[in-house]
Amino acid sequence: MISKKMTKALSLQLNREFYSAYLYLSMSAYCNHIDFNGAANWFKMQYEEEHMHATKIYNYLTEQGVHVNLEQIDKPPRKFGTILEIFQQSLDHEKFMTKNLNNLSDKALKVKDHATYNLLQWFVNEQVEEEASVEEIISKIKLVKNSGYGLLMVDNELAQRAAPEAKL
Ligand code: FEO
Fold it and tell me: Which of 40, 63, 67, 160 could form a disulfide bond with 32, CB atoms 3.0-4.6 angstroms apart?
């Protein structure tokens, strides 16, 4: 059975994952608004990914017999600047999530909660992938600088991102 302290900490992470989903959906809406439809698709897929992360934590807590407490989700920003700035904000957010997940992992180890630690390792590994993919997009946007054709190519590539596989 999971401890009250660990439940509280994981519930906070559950809220952060829902906020991430919300943030990425808002980024998608903004990209649509500024006519970067490929980037809008990319962020919409990211929204789905984050929704799955939240569901994964929810499922775990439920399996542990917890009556899950859902907190209010903060309102995300609505404007994000240039296409480069949007992805930079996405990277900053993912770094923040990585930091939280590392702290949570430390907490789980400290109280010898190996089941929760295992769950968190899945998330920690996922973060490596997430940060790397955003970094790659940032490099490409920097590479093409402000060339309209270059940005169109990057946007076309972002349009290819398919719906994530369920990882629940
Ligand atoms: Fe679920 Fe991108 O953090």
Answer: 40
- Supply the CATH number for residue 84's domain: 1.20.1260.10
17 lines ligand 1 (CB under 6 A): yes
How many structural domains compose the chain? 1
The per-residue DSSP string of 46-64 comes to HHHHHHHHHHHHHHHHHHT
User: For residue 33, what are the contacts with CB-CB under 8 A and spacing of at least 6?
Assistant: none
Q: Whose CA is nearest to atom 2 of ligand 1?
A: 94
Q: Does 113 sit in the ligand 1 pocket, CB within 6 Å?
A: no
Model pLDDT for residues 98-113, shown as the tens digit of each residue: 999 999 999 999 999 9
Written as one letter, the residue type at 114 is H
Q: What is the pTM for the complete model shown?
A: 0.96
Q: Which atom of ligand 1 is nearest to the CA of 54?
A: 1
pLDDT tens, residue by residue, 8-34 = 999 999 999 999 999 999 999 999 999
Evaluate whether residue 163 is within a structural domain: no
Is there a domain that residue 139 lies in? yes
- The one-letter code for the residue type at 148 is G
